[in-house]
Amino acid sequence: MSTDLNYSATRDPFSALGLDVGNRRIGVAGSDGLGLLATGLGVIRRRSLPEDIAQVQAWIRRRQATVVVVGIPLLADGSVGSQARKVQRFVRALQAAVDLPVVTVNEYLSTVQAEWDLRQAGIPAKAQKALIDQQSAAVILQTWLDERRYSQSSKAPCR
Asked: Which segments of the protein form a coiled coil according to its record?
């Protein structure tokens, strides 16, 4: 498992896929071609690990992803709990199945942020339930994109 903020795509255009892996659903988000903005794309209904991986591979092909970013639900103190261990198992299976970087980020409070984002956008409460997983994936991916951009800009030489 790695949080690789310095990953730079060698293929054009840049395309990152973000995943919020839950017990029942996997939220999916994608980046724009510049790696600036994340947008929720959809949801994968979980069935079995091989089927889930196949569905993620389909999203990778569809989006021509150059990197996959998966949120790890660490506990408030940063430690790994039972849900994080489940997601880590998923990440290992995904890494074995795809030929591109799979990186992880701490997704602590991503669902809270996603709920707030949906409320601020004026999405009715009933409609939020259908969108929360993909919005959480977008929050996870946006976190990685922002950290990556900040990391790259802080390494730029001062002029």
From this structure: none
